[in-house]
Design goal:
Elements: H1 3-20, H2 27-52, H3 60-77, H4 80-83, H5 93-98, H6 123-147, H7 153-172, H8 174-177, E1 189-191, E2 194-196, H9 201-223, H10 225-235, H11 237-242, H12 247-273, H13 283-296, H14 301-319, H15 328-342, H16 346-374
Helix pairs in contact: 1-9, 1-14, 2-9, 2-12, 2-13, 2-14, 3-6, 3-12, 6-12, 9-10, 9-12, 10-12, 13-14, 13-15, 14-15
Amino acid sequence: MKPRVAMGVGSVLLIALALVLPAMLGALWLNRVAQFMTYGILGVAMAIAWGYAGILNLGQGLYFGIGAYMLAMSLKLAAPGSLEGGTPMPIPDFMLWNAAPGAPQDLCCITSGSFLWIPFQREWFGVLMGVVVPAVVALGIGYTMFRARVSGVYVAIITLALALLARLVLIDAQPVTNGFNGLTSLSFFSIGGITFDPYQPRTYYLVVGVLALSLVLAQWLVSSRAGLILQAIRDDENRTRYLGYNVASYQVFFFVVSAVLAGTAGMLYVVTAQFASPTFLDVAFSLSMVVWAAVGGRNSVVGACLGAIGLSVLSSAASETPALLNAWQLVLGAIFIGAVLFLPRGLAGVFNDLLRRHAAPDTSRAASAPLAASGARATIPGQ
């Protein structure tokens, strides 16, 4: 079985398993698994950016956080706490609590910057912004970096610094974002009259459906002509540029695709977890995504996805174990170090090696079959 075929089979098996889980899990665990599935989408995003484009983005949490906050703003305005203030239009409860005495009870001007919330009264606008804003931000960052031929560790430093900067801005804009507290007490997500309760199977299937689409899209992209050129850029950027390809354009495009997937994952996380927090932009969270991709296999879309889901489950279990309560991050770090030292291509690389070894005997037999069929025999000189 070829690695590409194995990747497709792995995707099908993963989705098939995900579809039957609701029959075996209660509402609480179904909700938790749905959250882990959103991390699987982040794994796909990391595989595209790091594994296939060679772009080590240490600020992927920036796009996850943007997507989360965009949808959370709409769900916050639709929540009962934003509708009970007796005002003409919904106002987030934290704005009412923190408003200055005599401030107008209107979303346009109750506090500095509150007018930014006005379009988010429409839920479709929050969903749209959860895709568009990460794409625009990634486009600006990617265009600036890659047109200037920034690469390697410098990309990692820049993306990490930008995520930290965005986190500080998010916290400092407390009157608009609720600062450290984030956005909580949200309404359920609804679309087309269908409400998605976080603990109901339909919400779980929504996440699984988006994960399946992400896997299909990612595998199609990396297998396309553009994906092959991207891998050539990753392996030898200068040589690809000398062959006449616009290297920066390919890098920017896939950088944006990765950001859009991360923003989509952020929105789905808000749907399942019912909150948005500045912790989404923490360094630890973005580094966790790198660990997921490294362990699962950054050169494999399915491997990175499974690495994200599996390590998220492991981290959750370890953080809830009394003996590992203060050391579970050390366990995660040890797993990452072990993967770098002994599994440089991740678990997916090991699996592909096993497939090649299994296929090798079949290849040698197939090559000798024509000789046997033609009755060819060795001759000794002089006979």
